[in-house]
Amino acid sequence: MSARPDEFADTWGDIAPVGFAVAAWRVASAPDGPGDEFAPAARRAVAVLTRELDALLAPLIGQLEAGVPADS
Description:
The protein is mainly α. The protein has 2 domains: 1-30, no CATH class; 36-72. It is 54% helix and 0% strand. The chain contains 2 helices and no strands. It has helices spanning 18-27, 38-66. The longest helix is centred in the C-terminal third of the chain and has 29 residues, at 38-66. It is elongated, with a radius of gyration of 26 Å. The N and C termini lie far apart (65 Å). The relative contact order is 0.07. The model has no long low-confidence stretch (mean pLDDT 78).
């Protein structure tokens, strides 16, 4: 905000913060992309989700493969 105060000139004294938020959104720079730590964390998350889904669905898949009726 201090770099471009003219962007906020018409928002001072406004009871609703919407104008200020819109001005801040226009002035804000885009965040940096994910750092080097993103890829390993994503791989770990996918591994954990895969393991948990496998444990959750394994009994159901076993029943389907064995031909056990769904209502038993």
